Amino acid sequence: MAAAVTMSAGAFAATVDLSTTRFDRSEITAARAARASYEAGFKLKAVETFNDYKAWDGSSGTTNPQNTKVGSFTSFGAAGSGRSVVGDPSKLQVRGDDMPWGRYGTDASLPLGGNWLDSNDNLGMRWEISGLGKFDTLAFFVLDAADVGGQFSIKVGDTLHSIAGTAGRLANGNIHLVKILLSEAVTSLTVELMHDRTNDGFGIDGAAVGLAPVPLPPAALLLGTALLGLVGFGRRRTAA
Predict the structure, then answer these.
(1) Interior angle at CA 148, CA 33 and CA 99, nearest 5
(2) pLDDT at residue 230 is higher than 90
(3) Tell me, what's the pLDDT at 233?
(4) Which long-range contacts (CB under 8 A, 24 or more apart) does 67-73 make?
(5) Residue 49: pLDDT above 90?
(6) How many CB atoms lie within 10 A of CB 230?
(7) In the structure, what pLDDT confidence band is assigned to residue 223 with cuts at 50, 70 and 90?
(8) Helix %, strand %, coil % of the chain (to 5)
């Protein structure tokens, strides 16, 4: 069953509205549909699936990818030492091997869902967004959070949002669709994803940055309604 929670808090100059919807791995089709529905409501600036980066092949791969379509990603905090760590344990790792303990790509058009960016069991992942012009909304999947006993949080600007794990361990392979909406457009933003302990790895995939449509002010809506009414009235007079 999917579960949703919405939180708002002050952060830097804008107000942050962060919402998550949780899906089981068996509900990945529904998760993709929910993401597509949300993205249909805003103008996409860029999407990063990590499929253009070399994934870990047993000896080498891409770590801490910089200058991606949606910004740069680096690890922070203590390095991982769990059984899912590959390569340099202090760095994030692009993977595409459908790990048996729960992380996987989410692209329906590619075998095994393509690549994703893995925390490599590090404490956290820092996502720095810039160079895209103005934006005010993000959407992305977080994979396999809080399934080993850690508590998972996302920090947007200056505000920390508790996402998962406070009520107990989640199922292996869970998916969180994360949607972030800012009260005003910005040109740069830092998002940090983290557990409160190492070796509770997670992944991120399908990171999208966009600009939400500006709603019409009430006066404009009333004017539009009045104009439509006049058009209808004119047609009725012509018909008479």
Answers:
(1) 55
(2) no
(3) 47
(4) 70/46, 70/127, 70/129, 70/132, 70/207, 70/208, 70/209, 71/127, 71/128, 71/129, 71/130, 71/131, 71/132, 71/209, 72/127, 72/128, 73/117, 73/125, 73/126, 73/127, 73/128, 73/204
(5) yes
(6) 10
(7) low
(8) 15, 40, 40
